[in-house]
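Reminder to self: tokens first, then the designed residues, so the page reads top to bottom the way the pipeline ran.
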């Protein structure tokens, strides 16, 4: 990445600008703007997050926000209420209070003498979600949005219930937020005494969100609120949607470009869950330059040509050897002026010939361990590995060897007819690229709770032995399968630990299956190009402890228990500007028995540390999830320390009935 140190306008920074909400709650904002914005007002770019601007997102903030400010914007990074250096309490993700606070910040910013009245909102993940939801509320000053790694459907395309199946990230992310939000504000900003009162109040009111999310197992009003797919027309701001093929949120770009009526463009690269100017696998792109083109057009009225950009720009990845991490993915950029595209044609492939005996799908509960993380994050061993171990536990439909390469661009679908011997069953379908030597690389996958075959809102129990039809939509992808390779469609009824298992072992009889494969004419080279990445001066730090990520799968040959153990040590660093030292370690274990779905369990343990000049605090959070045939059982614990003294502890435990899950 090229570091830019000289900008068209000189930048000044305000590290703790207080923004008071109508109810009196003070939100802490870090603001960068041109030094002469008071004389020459500028548009505002807002990022509104719970992830702590002081020590959480500071790496990317340093690259991004000063860059925007140097090009004539006031760039505002706000800690949401109940997090970081802001007052107040947080009770859920994307609450009405959170969205209203963002609207109030937008109104406040637009009224400042250094603002020209136009506001843009951006973010990745949580910030990508809430900027779309805020746009749907139509605050008058909000003219444009850049949303990365986000979703239009809070129920079926987030970390909760993919395809109506319970994602283990539902519990995993609740555990993460319990840890993230357990940290205090920085005493250097809030004062030597006040930080502690804010911290203890925060801890006393800290929610453990897993039970709340488990109480909404179907697509009810709780999930519809904030799901912009309920009314795409509510979004009137111009939207640039960006994502990555190695992220969990691959589908949003297509959904937005297809459905919203306001100006919209989409870009999908080979990346994990990161901003694309520093993302991997490479190639990264000049995201900040692309963002400026978007902001300049919609916030300054400058003709930058964005309206003539292709509707959908996607990176078609070449086939590579399966690996848990790829520093880069060879391939090429393709461009579609309209999306959906008339150049993408669907090839229909019958997987089970007429008159064949049904294929019996009865996977061990441990099938899925090669699947990788839902949204890889650490530049470490989190990607899907060689699929052969999971293929061996699935029913596989291998296609003939390809005489010519094919480009798969879009969302593959599989129509199935099947019967189940249990009233609730899941199905997982993977599309794989099989190399000549048998190595199997995951292209895309989809999962479906078969009781949701007709509706996520009104599921229907299966009648054992009765044949039903269902459609499994796999995730969007852009992938070249070379000549000499062949496609494999692998079907299982377990996918651990991506989804929670059914309450009983299941046997599916698959009598018909048809693959709809979206094929685009073979691209001969890059159809669009991007500038090389740029960024402002990187964050200045001293490394106290280096980062490290580990993954281990252990099988107890005596008991049969299989355990996936994960350690993500995010390291410990000192900020050279304000001296704060922060560190973080996450530990997870996911346990299953191949023959017993009720043996499934997940445990997490997070450690967070903060210190400066003899002051130190630490939080330890622990969480566990298990289930019996009737209930999910979740528990958690927070411990908070000043130095080595325990100053706060709190336990959570709750059982939630299973409902066709």
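Designed residues (661 positions):
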């Amino acid at each position: 990445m090229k570091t830019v140190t000289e900008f068209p306008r000189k930048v000044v920074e305000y590290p703790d600008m207080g923004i008071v909400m109508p109810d009196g709650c003070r939100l802490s904002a870090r603001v960068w703007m041109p030094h002469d914005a008071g004389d020459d007002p500028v548009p505002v770019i807002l990022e509104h997050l719970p992830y702590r601007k002081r020590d959480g997102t500071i790496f990317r903030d340093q690259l991004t926000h000063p860059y925007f400010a140097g090009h004539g914007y006031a760039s505002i990074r706000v800690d949401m209420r109940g997090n970081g250096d802001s007052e107040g309490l947080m009770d859920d993700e994307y609450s009405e209070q959170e969205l209203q606070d963002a609207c109030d910040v937008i109104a406040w910013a637009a009224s400042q003498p250094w603002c020209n009245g136009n506001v843009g909102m951006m973010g990745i993940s949580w910030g990508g979600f809430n900027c779309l939801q805020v746009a749907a509320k139509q605050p008058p000053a909000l003219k444009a949005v850049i949303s990365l790694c986000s979703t239009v459907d809070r129920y079926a395309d987030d970390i909760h219930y993919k395809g109506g199946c319970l994602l283990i990230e539902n519990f995993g992310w609740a555990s993460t937020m319990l840890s993230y939000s357990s940290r205090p504000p920085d005493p250097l900003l809030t004062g030597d005494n006040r930080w502690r009162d804010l911290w203890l109040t925060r801890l006393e009111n800290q929610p453990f969100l897993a039970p709340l999310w488990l109480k909404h197992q179907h697509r009810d009003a709780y999930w519809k609120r904030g799901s912009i797919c309920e009314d795409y027309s509510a979004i009137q701001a111009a939207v640039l949607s960006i994502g990555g093929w190695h992220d969990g949120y691959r589908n949003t770009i297509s959904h937005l470009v297809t459905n919203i009526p306001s100006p919209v463009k989409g870009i999908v690269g080979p990346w994990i869950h990161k901003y694309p100017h520093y993302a991997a696998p490479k190639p990264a792109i000049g995201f900040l330059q692309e963002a400026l083109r978007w902001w300049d057009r919609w916030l300054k009225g400058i003709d930058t040509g964005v309206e003539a950009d292709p509707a959908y720009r996607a990176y078609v990845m070449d086939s590579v050897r399966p690996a848990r991490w790829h520093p880069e993915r060879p391939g090429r950029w393709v461009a579609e002026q309209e999306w959906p595209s008339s150049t993408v044609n669907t090839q229909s492939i019958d997987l089970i010939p007429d008159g064949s005996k049904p294929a019996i799908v009865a996977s061990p509960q441990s099938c899925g361990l090669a699947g990788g993380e839902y949204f890889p994050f650490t530049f470490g061993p989190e990607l899907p590995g060689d699929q052969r171990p999971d293929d061996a536990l699935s029913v596989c439909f291998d296609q003939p060897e390809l005489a010519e390469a094919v480009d798969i661009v879009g969302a593959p679908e599989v129509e199935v007819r099947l019967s189940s011997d249990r009233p609730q069953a899941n199905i997982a379908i993977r599309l794989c690229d099989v190399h000549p030597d048998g190595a199997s690389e995951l292209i895309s996958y989809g999962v479906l709770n078969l009781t949701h075959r007709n509706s996520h809102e009104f599921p229907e129990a299966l009648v054992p032995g009765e044949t039903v039809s269902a459609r499994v939509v796999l995730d969007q992808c852009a992938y070249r399968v070379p000549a000499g390779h062949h496609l494999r469609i692998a079907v299982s009824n377990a996918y651990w630990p991506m989804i929670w298992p059914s309450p009983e072992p299941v046997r599916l009889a698959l009598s018909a299956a048809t693959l709809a494969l979206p094929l685009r004419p073979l691209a001969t080279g890059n159809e669009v190009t991007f500038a090389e990445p740029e960024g402002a001066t990187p964050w200045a730090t001293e490394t106290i402890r280096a980062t490290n990520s580990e993954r281990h799968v252990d099988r107890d040959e005596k008991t049969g228990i299989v355990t996936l153990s994960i350690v993500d040590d995010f390291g410990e660093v000192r900020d050279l500007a304000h001296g704060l030292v922060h560190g973080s370690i996450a530990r997870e274990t996911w346990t299953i028995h191949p023959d017993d779905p009720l043996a499934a369990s997940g445990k997490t343990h997070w450690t967070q540390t903060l210190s400066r000049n003899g002051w130190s605090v630490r939080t330890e959070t622990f969480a566990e999830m298990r289930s019996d045939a009737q209930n999910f059982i979740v528990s958690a614990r927070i411990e908070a320390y000043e130095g080595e003294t325990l100053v706060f502890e709190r336990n959570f435990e709750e059982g939630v009935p299973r409902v066709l899950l």
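The chain has a mean pLDDT of 97.
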